Amino acid sequence: xxxxxxxxxxxxxxxxxxxxxxxxxxxxAFLGRTSRRAGQDAEAGxxxxxxxxxxxxxxxxxxxxxxxxxxxxxQAQVREALSAGxxxxxxxxxxxxxxxxxxxxxxxxxxxxxxxxxxxTSEGGRxxxxxxxxxxxxxxxxxxxxxxxxxxxxxxxxxxxxxxxGMSQQQxxxxxxRQIPDAAWCVLLLFxxxxxxxxxxxxxxxxxxxxxxLFFPVLTAFTLFMIVEIDIPGEGIIxxxxxxxxxxxxxxTGNNLPGAIREPGAYIxxxx
Length: 272
What we know:
Blueprint: H1 2-7, H2 10-34, H3 41-91, H4 98-118, H5 122-149, H6 153-175, H7 182-202, H8 210-213, H9 215-231, H10 243-253
Helix pairs in contact: 2-7, 2-9, 3-4, 3-6, 3-7, 3-9, 3-10, 4-5, 5-6
């Protein structure tokens, strides 16, 4: 059972993707090495240099785009934490027992958002999004009723903060997507395979030089793997963790969230 559980985990998918990338690039390199013919070194050198340069540029651009997307997701998480803290402060303007009920809805919303960032599957993420949306709607309806009974500027300001809470969640959903399209990935893989083939084609056939041939395909595979992991939101090894949301929740309540991430940079793939 443990074996099949590991195979169905996101870690197994990540490892399989890395193995497939590395295997494909290594096969192309050794195929190019076996296809080398005498008298074609000059032509192959020109083509190899051009392909290698273009491949490096494409990988560099892809890495930059994926990192920018990761930074946008981090900023979205910070924005949600700040919106929740502001909403918590403004709910103090509400009379009892509406204040206590509103703050409980707000804590439940933050808990759902924390689990969303910690969830490692797209299906689970969609469930936590829906649950948080329901909490936010209930919070809005609660304060809307209070505004109808006592339409004071203080209550209206609370409505504004609740609206900002929903907007922050929508902004997170707007950036919670892959930044590199499938067509771009096809071009990246094509150039990486071609560069590996030409690297093998240009590689000398002296004895003991086969190990040197491994460097380019292996490094390229690791680079592409890292770009994929950064570009996939919420499912890769390199993920945005809800550190600011957890810190804000701990500050507001004075309690530790069960199962919260206590070490910076740690990650959990599935909800325990």
